[in-house]
Design goal:
The protein has 117 residues and is α+β, with helices and mostly antiparallel strands. Helices cover 15% and strands 41% of the residues. Strands 1, 2, 3, 6, 7 and 8 form a six-stranded mixed beta sheet that branches. The chain has a two-stranded antiparallel sheet with strand order 4-5.
Length: 117
């Protein structure tokens, strides 16, 4: 399988997928552990996919009549029952996974408290 980068947000003519990677900086998940010398870490929230791999939250863009951000908002709400603020999305990369099929990835920074929730 050949994967190549395409201009961000360019729709494929056959299929489009959109994913979000949630992350938080300066988290302290080990705060109450004994003998802890890890003050802060950065965390990324991933989900176990249908094929046993880890990945971002997202899925298929049902229609090119809506924006990628709106499609992602719907997918995240369906899968995580979380409503994203589109202004907090940062584009990462768009890839052509197969002829005319594109995958679009975004990052979403949140606080540690939001990530735990």
């Amino acid at each position: 399988m050949s994967v190549k980068e395409v201009p961000f947000g360019e729709y494929g003519t056959r299929a489009n997928f959109v994913f979000c990677y949630f992350f938080a900086r300066k988290c302290n998940p080990y705060k109450n552990y004994e003998l802890n010398d890890i003050p802060e870490v950065n965390l990324v929230l991933l989900q176990l996919r249908w094929d046993g791999l880890l990945g971002g939250c997202g899925g298929t863009v049902e229609s090119t009549d809506i924006s990628l951000e709106d499609a992602l908002r719907r997918e995240v709400q369906e899968e995580m029952n979380y409503i994203i603020d589109k202004s907090r999305l940062s584009p990462l990369k768009s890839l052509e996974l197969f002829p005319e099929g594109h995958s679009h990835s975004y990052s979403y920074e949140m606080t540690y408290a939001e990530l735990k929730k």
